[in-house]
Amino acid sequence: MENKLENLKAYLKKLKKVAIAFSSGVDSTFLLKVAHDELKENVIALSIKADSFPEREINQAVEFCKNENIKHIVVEFDELKIEGFKSNPPNRCYLCKKALFQKMKEIAKQNNIEYILEGSNLDDENDYRPGMQAVFELGIKSPLKELKFSKNEIRILSRKLGLKTADKPSYACLASRFTYGEEITKEKLHMVDSAEQFLLDLGFYQVRVRLHGNIARIEVIPDEFEKILKNKKQITDKLKLLGFKYITLDLTGYRSGSMNEILDKK
User: Fold this and answer.
1) Cα–Cα separations (whole angstroms), residue 140 to 64, 133, 203, 235, 259
2) What's the confidence (pLDDT) of residue 266?
């Protein structure tokens, strides 16, 4: 694992100057920290402000860059204007990532930076991620994946670096909470965001509120099922107030990319 960290440092030094797509999640925070430690002022962080990204995430990104004295550019981005995005097809992530990274490439060029890096890791290959095709097509680099960092290794090394994100729950954009074919709107994104923030404020660790029409399908880790039941009236009342008609608990529990389970993987 330490060898991988040294390999990452050497990888970054060869690039000399980079822009990091920074979400404030576990992976991108680790990548940005190592890159800034190695390249100093030759690193900039690019973060997205959009309806499909909770405000808490952008606030954490701003705070981290301020504390680490990293140049940080927040990109205003309206994903709902991307052709085909709102209808939520199975390749929605590809459409969004392609438009997003094209925008980031423009900003990087304005700052005389050739290379854009993003934080996908080895474990991301275990799920359906059409956005990675856009990453490949646009020449965006994924050093953590290339150097075979697992999520667990990133968490361990993040802890050694003193990063608060070492134990942060996994996160994905809010559009991933919609069943394929469900129209994505600003109002529905706000419903999901508010529902998840409510559960996080109640102390739940890993949360997803999946939207199926007027049904909320809550995913938490099985150890927290009992907590859901203890707070069921409070949770039901709040989510109905937000606009959901039916509130359900997924008995399988939290898992990444559960909306992809209906897709034909052949």
Assistant:
1) 23, 10, 36, 41, 26
2) 38
